[in-house]
Write a structure and sequence with these properties.
The protein is an alpha/beta fold. The chain has a domain at 26-243: TIM Barrel (Alpha-Beta Barrel), CATH 3.20.20. Helices cover 39% and strands 18% of the residues. The strands form 2 sheets. Strands 1, 2, 3, 4, 5, 8, 9, 10, 11, 12 and 13 form an 11-stranded mixed beta sheet that branches.
Length: 327
């Protein structure tokens, strides 16, 4: 009896062959780079838990954005650290707040770079929760009023895409209404439609935005990590309300959710490779336990294989350098 005719190893025998039949491919156009802007001047301070990522004053942010544009990365996701915090997150919708200032500066200096503004309140509230609290509970509808104000403030500053992240019921609907009523029909909405209450966010909150909650947690609005069907319902609602792109966050532990969303809905899907994923790989690499570049490439390719169209990642600059070198 002869050996089976089909020998799948034939397709794997050389690197050129492997490239030819590769099913999932990473590209620079897939990338969105998160950035953190702070008040001040000449500030470029590395975030300890996110090596090679920085708190940047606007002048240094512009320098970085020019480099990002030269690397052909199409978009950034912008987070701001305000001078003051209060119970109503007033700096989140202040037209002269740090994020609107940064948006205007970026669009003046690098007009073709897509600026995505994260729209949330946890970095602006004194208690670290994502909006207005009422008897210790995040009040959905009162917080929607703040969302309206932030939406208009960021749109007026020139943001191309708004990314609401509080997981509020009805958030996309009110944002779309505000944008359309004020002549910003072309501003996209990219909600965190399936944002899980994950333990992988800690480096981002502790050091990135410096907004760890003063009590409790965010499990009344972020999703239970045991649920997947619920994510499909959340995505369906956001699409119905006018979402243009949806985000699944985190990435690596929710690839089943990404796959199911991509199979069910005809909409671009982004994943957020969060701070905990990045930190684990980078620090394991620093200890020489793993090759961090190789592992990061494996992680990011798995997101594409699951169906993600776009990847928000702290590794975007390094990946762009690798991809540019290999072209």
């Amino acid at each position: 009896m002869g050996f089976p005719v089909m020998r799948l190893r034939r397709l794997r025998q050389t690197e050129p062959l492997r490239r030819m039949v590769r099913e999932s491919k990473l590209g620079i156009d897939d990338l969105i780079y998160p950035m953190f802007v702070v008040h001040g001047f000449d500030i470029k301070k590395e975030i300890n838990s996110l090596p090679d990522n920085y708190h940047l004053s606007i002048d240094k942010l512009i320098e970085e954005c020019k480099q990002i544009y030269d690397l052909k990365i199409p978009a950034i996701l912008l987070f701001g650290l305000p001078k003051k915090k209060d119970e109503t997150a007033s700096e989140a919708y202040n037209p002269q707040g740090i994020v609107p200032q940064a948006i205007r500066a970026i669009k003046t200096a690098v007009s073709d770079l897509i600026v995505i503004a994260d729209v949330c309140f946890c970095g602006y509230t004194s208690h670290g929760h994502c909006g207005i609290l009422k008897n210790g509970y995040l009040d959905n509808d009162l917080t929607l009023n703040l969302l309206r104000k932030s939406t208009l403030s960021y749109a007026e500053a020139g943001a191309d895409i708004l990314a609401p992240s509080p997981m509020l019921d009805g958030m996309v609907k009110v944002m779309r209404e505000v944008l359309d009523e004020n002549g910003y029909q072309n501003v996209l909405i990219m909600p965190y439609s399936a944002k899980y209450a994950s333990n992988l966010y800690y480096p981002f909150f502790k050091e990135g935005t410096q907004s760890v909650v003063s009590f409790g947690d965010k499990k009344t609005h972020q999703m239970d990590y045991a649920n997947a069907n619920e994510a499909l319902r959340e995505v369906a609602l956001d699409i119905e309300e006018g979402a243009d792109i949806i985000i699944v966050k985190p990435a690596i532990t929710y690839l089943d959710v990404v796959y199911r969303i991509k199979e069910k809905f005809n909409i671009p899907v982004a994943v957020y490779s969060v701070s905990g994923e990045y930190a684990m790989i980078k620090f394991a690499g620093k200890k020489r336990i793993i090759d961090s570049d190789a592992v990061m490439l494996e992680f990011l390719t798995s997101y594409k294989r699951a169906g993600a169209d776009l990847i928000i990642t702290y590794y975007a600059k390094r990946l762009a350098q690798i991809l540019n070198e290999n072209n």
